[in-house]
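Kindly draft a polypeptide, keeping tokens residue-aligned:

***
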Amino acid sequence: MVLRANVMSPRIFWFDFRRALVSGLRWILLASLALAGVGALWLGFERGLLKNDEFRLRELTMNDNAALSEARLLQVTGIDLDGSVFDCNPREIREKLMSLPEVQSARVSRSFPGSLAIEITARQPVLWVACQEEGRLARDPASGLLVDRDGLLFPCTAAMWEEAEGLPVIELEKEPFPLEAGMKVEHESFLRGMRLLAEARSASPEADEWIDTIRQYKGWGSQLVTRGGTVATFGHRDLKRQMNDFLTACEHAAGTGRKIATIELVGRRNIPVTFQIEGQAPPAPEPPREIAPTRPVSDLQKLLER
């Protein structure tokens, strides 16, 4: 048997209290010293790196591309031209660039002591998409949308206009979902228009020069409108044969000094054709709105050296 007795007196209590107080003060002192050390290290890091003029952003380069101007780059990424190269996170900058529908790929690299290089690949437009019901006008840089080979919609930038203004247009009816930049068009009328355009490009390398608009027609066919005003009606099947018949008819009419006004190519025989009346102007497509000429933004290097 073990007998334990706890004896407490004012003197013993004061002794225990003083020992606990000294121990607590010792830990507080150690914690304060640790915090002071961390603060000193951070202050040294900030002064030695973040605010060191040697690591100031001195060189910012971007390759020539049709997606972003230099001013737009700064607006989208928020790069501080007066800041440090440590403020430029390559991954964050790339994510912001890739969020733009007109950018297909982006590469950002940082080099010390003060360089940042950005390489951008813009999407390549192959045609316009128009929808009157949604206010998406053909060949309109403000409201129109371009499409790349993957069917992805993106806006027309000022640098793209010269290349894009002459591209064909696929005119759509009201879509189940609003047409917005960044979405992929998978509507059946669009896919049918793409198949007809692909057949025309396959049969004629100059197709983009003479095709103006392709549109859905009465649910069972598509109409192709040329820049000369010819309206050709195609069925959804047997496109290769119909396209060959169309090109042959146009070539024959040109050989006789005439221009086709309308032609229906669904049937294999007795293809209905009407001709344009001499002196009568063909129905020209609505001209695009004017766009301000592309003006180079101030050079990035000059901005950095201001």
